[in-house]
């Protein structure tokens, strides 16, 4: 990925040329020493401020280290020096995508692809970008192009399934998710997504059957994830007994799973067992005291127990942690009498 050609070399004060510094950066990168590579490319760009390859390489390293904002800045510096740089456009697009700047990412990625970067991964990323912009037809074109380039492109099948689900075409969505499983029978996310797709389509029989089938070989955490999806589906269907059974099965696997405990508290509230719900949430909070849903549910249970002060305090904490639903209760007559 690293750029390898530079047009001119400056000389540093200690006699080391930009070419030597640059090559040292490349060597460090190839050995996996990103910190040294980054230091070398920074030094090279300080010696030669027009070294677009150096800024491109910094953008690549920034992206790999999760430093997306600096990745954007360095890619933009590279493009200011060489506007048609395919690598700079690609990594500017990738960093913008990670930052949620989807409109900018779309422009960057389209330029990279127009510049000759016609890979399955670049087409797939552009597909995810268009999906994030709700441009579903464009996303389908991108994912189809990615799959045409690589018939086993898991990321593209996953993305195309998301588009089909958003369009309400669950038959095609489940077909793509099944394809993911065919490619990699151990793709735990594919099983989870396929179960979710079946439930969304209203086909609980297929979803439940797949959970049973998968549970035989899945690891404990994966089983819990599947059971939580199942429980939440039945809870939303107001089938409290089925939801309770699923959550209790998850609890039997791991009694310290916070999501399970919070979901069990929701069932207890639905059963009007408010004291038990508070106790269940207390278990969750003792494990992780920054789960907004836990405080929200405890607020509901406390309010039903006429513990208004405690309820409003819980909702305030939930709101601070990011619960928009809690804000409604805080602004209601319950907390403002």
Notes on the structure:
The relative contact order is 0.04. The chain has 19 helices and no strands. The chain is 74% helix and 0% strand. It is globular. The chain has helices at 18-30, 34-47, 52-64, 68-81, 86-98, 102-114, 120-132, 136-149, 154-166, 170-183, 188-200, 204-215, 220-236, 240-253, 258-270, 274-287, 292-304, 308-320, 324-330. Helix 11 runs antiparallel to helix 12. The termini are far apart. It is mostly helical.
Average residue pLDDT = 92
What percent of residues are in strands? under 5%
Along the chain, the helix and strand elements come as HHHHHHHHHHHHHHHHHHH
How many β-strand runs?
A: 0
Please tally the helical runs, counting DSSP H or I stretches of 4 or more residues.
Answer: 19
Low-confidence stretches: 4-15
How does the SSE layout of this entry go?
Blueprint: H1 18-30, H2 34-47, H3 52-64, H4 68-81, H5 86-98, H6 102-114, H7 120-132, H8 136-149, H9 154-166, H10 170-183, H11 188-200, H12 204-215, H13 220-236, H14 240-253, H15 258-270, H16 274-287, H17 292-304, H18 308-320, H19 324-330
Helix pairs in contact: 1-2, 2-3, 3-4, 3-5, 4-5, 5-6, 6-7, 7-8, 7-9, 8-9, 9-10, 10-11, 11-12, 11-13, 12-13, 13-14, 13-15, 14-15, 15-16, 15-17, 16-17, 17-18, 18-19
Key phrases:
337 residues, 0% strand, mainly alpha, 19 helices
In short:
With 337 residues, the protein is an all-alpha fold.
């Amino acid at each position: 990925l690293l750029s390898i050609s530079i047009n001119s070399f400056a000389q540093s004060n200690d006699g080391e040329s930009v070419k030597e510094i640059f090559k040292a950066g490349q060597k460090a990168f190839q050995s996996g020493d990103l910190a040294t590579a980054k230091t070398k490319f920074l030094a090279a760009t300080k010696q030669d401020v027009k070294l677009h390859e150096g800024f491109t390489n910094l953008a690549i390293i920034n992206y790999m280290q999760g430093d997306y904002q600096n990745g954007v800045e360095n890619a933009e510096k590279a493009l200011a020096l060489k506007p048609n740089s395919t690598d700079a456009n690609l990594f500017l697009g990738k960093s913008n995508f990670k930052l949620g700047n989807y409109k900018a990412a779309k422009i960057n990625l389209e330029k990279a692809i127009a510049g000759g970067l016609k890979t399955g991964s670049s087409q797939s990323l552009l597909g995810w970008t268009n999906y994030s912009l709700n441009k579903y037809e464009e996303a389908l074109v991108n994912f189809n192009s990615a799959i045409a380039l690589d018939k086993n492109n898991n990321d593209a099948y996953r993305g195309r399934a998301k588009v089909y689900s958003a369009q309400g075409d669950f038959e095609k969505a489940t077909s793509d998710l099944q394809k993911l499983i065919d490619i990699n029978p151990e793709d735990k996310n594919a099983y989870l997504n396929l179960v979710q797709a079946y439930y969304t389509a209203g086909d609980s029989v297929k979803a439940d059957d797949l959970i049973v089938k998968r549970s035989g070989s899945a690891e404990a955490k994966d089983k819990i994830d599947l059971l939580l999806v199942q429980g939440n589906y039945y809870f939303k269907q107001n089938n409290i007994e089925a939801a309770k059974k699923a959550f209790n099965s998850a609890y039997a696997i791991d009694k310290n799973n916070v999501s399970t405990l919070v979901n069990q508290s929701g069932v207890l509230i639905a059963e009007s067992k408010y004291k038990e719900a508070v106790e269940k949430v207390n278990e969750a909070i003792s494990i992780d005291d920054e789960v907004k849903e836990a405080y929200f549910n405890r607020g509901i249970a406390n309010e039903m127990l006429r513990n208004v002060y405690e309820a409003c305090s819980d909702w305030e904490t939930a709101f601070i942690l990011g619960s928009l639903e809690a804000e409604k209760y805080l602004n209601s007559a319950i907390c403002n009498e």
